[in-house]
Design a protein that fits this description.
single chain; 75% helix; transmembrane helix; mainly alpha
């Protein structure tokens, strides 16, 4: 069949195919470049977000070690905030910080703020006793974990120990 087609038509068809293949290659290269740029932008956004989260984590951990924040509140806040870390900073909180997670698990469903004011005094006292017992039992382990958190985040400020070691 090629013998019946003029050589010019075959050459033109080949040139068109080569041109389209070149264009497809160029589009593929642009797509790869765009994908790399999007990935770099996403990684930069994740890093920036993690830095903001880590800054909050450092403040809470330091305040707790300096007894400016109670252990239950710290456990709730740290668990909720650190759950949003991404990339290489992502942690399995229950495994890495078991004492903080245990306290979080004890107090997570207890009413707070205005909801706490609305429950009967007897129930409030029962919650308080349960919370205080857990805080007391886990205090030393939590303080150790708070220092581990500060080491993990690379905190620029080191805590001043308030507890007798």
């Amino acid at each position: 069949m090629l013998e019946t087609l003029p050589l010019g038509v075959v050459a033109l068809g080949g040139a068109i195919i080569l041109g389209l293949a070149g264009y497809a290659g160029w589009l593929l290269a642009k797509l790869r470049q765009q994908t790399k740029m999007q990935e770099a932008a996403m990684n930069a956004a994740i890093k920036q977000r993690n830095l903001k989260i880590i800054e909050s984590v450092d403040v809470i951990a330091l305040a707790t070690l300096q007894e400016q924040c109670d252990l239950s509140e710290a456990a709730i806040r740290l668990y909720m905030i650190m759950d949003h870390l991404q990339g290489e900073k992502r942690v399995d909180f229950p495994t890495r910080f078991p004492a903080l997670y245990e306290l979080y698990d004890v107090v997570k469903d207890m009413p707070r703020g205005d909801a706490r004011k609305e429950i009967p005094k007897k129930e409030r006292m029962r919650h308080d006793m349960h919370r205080v017992k857990a805080e007391s039992r886990l205090q030393q382990a939590i303080h150790t974990e708070l220092e581990e958190i500060l080491a993990f985040t690379g905190a620029k400020i080191t805590p001043v120990r308030t507890l007798a070691s």
